[in-house]
Design brief:
Blueprint: H1 4-7, H2 11-18, E1 25-27, E2 34-36, H3 46-54, E3 57-63, E4 68-73, E5 83-90, H4 102-111, E6 121-128, E7 131-137
Antiparallel strand pairs: 1-2, 1-3, 3-4, 4-5, 5-7, 6-7
């Protein structure tokens, strides 16, 4: 998990993303890196792209349902197939999604449904405002 000091360089990207429309994204899984809209490429420096790569961020997008800009990664220690997880720069805090411990909350919700039922859940664990961990299953 990244420290708040390590998340700090990502705040500039979060603010740039926040100023874009809801469909804005940066997909680092593609080569070359895909920016939507393409004009976003001119707003994000190579240094900032380097910060995303150093943090193992694979995907950045505005997510109105989570209330902010998500930074998807596979390296936060929660290995669950069928999920998206990472860090969220909260713009409009979704307090109804906040939990004390994201892994425990996910396990509790999973235990409450049948084994043949898919779990659709969104959870946020606040690190320090405006940063939170997010987990979204589908």
């Amino acid at each position: 998990m990244l420290t708040l000091k390590q998340l700090k360089p990502l705040e500039t990207i979060a603010l740039v993303m926040k100023a874009q429309n809801a469909d804005a994204m940066i997909d680092l899984r593609d080569q070359p890196i895909r920016f939507v809209p393409e004009s976003l490429r001119d707003l994000v420096s190579s240094h900032e792209v380097g910060a995303l790569k150093a943090a193992n961020i694979q995907f950045v997008a505005n997510d109105p349902s989570l209330g902010g800009v998500l930074f998807e990664t596979e390296t936060i220690g929660i290995a669950i197939s069928g999920t998206s997880k990472g860090y969220l720069y909260e713009v409009q805090p979704q307090v109804n999604l906040h939990v004390a411990d994201i892994a425990s909350a996910f396990e509790e919700r999973k235990a409450s449904i049948g084994s043949d039922t898919s779990l659709n859940v969104q959870l946020l664990q606040v690190l320090e405002s405006p940063w939170a961990l997010y987990l979204e299953s589908y």
